[in-house]
Amino acid sequence: MDFILPMSIMALIIIFLAFRLIFLAGKFIYAKDITIDQFQLYDGEFPDKLKSARYQFQNMFEIPLLFFPLCIAHMILKNASLPDYVFVWGFVVFRVLHMLFRLQNQRGLNIRPRTITFIISLIFLGAGWIKLLLNSIFI
Known about the structure:
With 139 residues, the chain is mainly α.
């Protein structure tokens, strides 16, 4: 098995969300709902959909950043077993679900499903790091 595919999926999600943010910003600038000058310091009011897209993009540089070194460590150490792949893929699946929930405008939305998918993805990631540590100690 390989770690390249799950890493690629996460990278492509980040790239997709960056293009989505650029597209939405352009759409709202073109509609004159905001000005391009507001992006210097993120001053002023922004439409909820744009704020939500920005937060979603920023979130990809928080918890998911712990995912990439986990995969790279497994690739370098070559000590992965089936549970390691389950933890990695579990994280990716629940991050994709989380992304799909976050694509919606968040105002007035029930955040429970989003929160649950976030927590489950965090459990998979934490378990993956614990398993990596155990793999490294008991080899």
